[in-house]
Amino acid sequence: MPVELKGSCHCGAVKFSLLSSTPVPYQLCVCSICRKVGGVGGSINLGGHSETLKVEGKENISVYKAVMDRDTPQQTIASSERSFCKKCSSMLWLPELIHPFASAIDSPELEVPETMSVCLVSSKPAYVRLPEGDKKVYKKYGPYSLEEWHKKHNLYKA
């Protein structure tokens, strides 16, 4: 059965809940976008069922569309949107398939994966340290989607 995730921004102006079949925070992205919007260490996204998303404080949400290949001739604006609190700037979720940021989840306490996957290290500067513990590091993305990884590790909550 899916897990109910409850989250909020730092200042409390936005609170949300949704059901998730993929609630284990196993994949850290250290790309330039995740580092700049989520903090130097990057960000971890979970998966959620968009039709179950309930939000309090919608008026405090703003959206950011990332600049891809900034300052190059290939520069474009990403089609994906990142929702954040416009009062405290906490990142909340990516709305396409609803990927809440693990950092915004208040309850339940998220399970610690045995192995952390770290993706997009090809864009990580040298000063950013990778997490301690067992990890798999990928220059781009790992071989599994969020759903596939959870199913492979018997952690999918149907």
From TrEMBL:
Matches recorded under PROSITE patterns: CENP_V_GFA
A Pfam family: GFA
Residues in CENP-V/GFA domain copies: 5-139
UniProt keyword Ligase present: no
Gene3D superfamilies reported in the protein's UniProt record: glutathione-dependent formaldehyde- activating enzyme (gfa) (3.90.1590.10)
Single Gene Ontology MF annotation: carbon-sulfur lyase activity
Keywords: Lyase, Metal-binding, Zinc
InterPro entries (alphabetical): CENP-V/GFA, Mss4-like_sf
Protein name, per record: CENP-V/GFA domain-containing protein
Organism: Agrocybe chaxingu
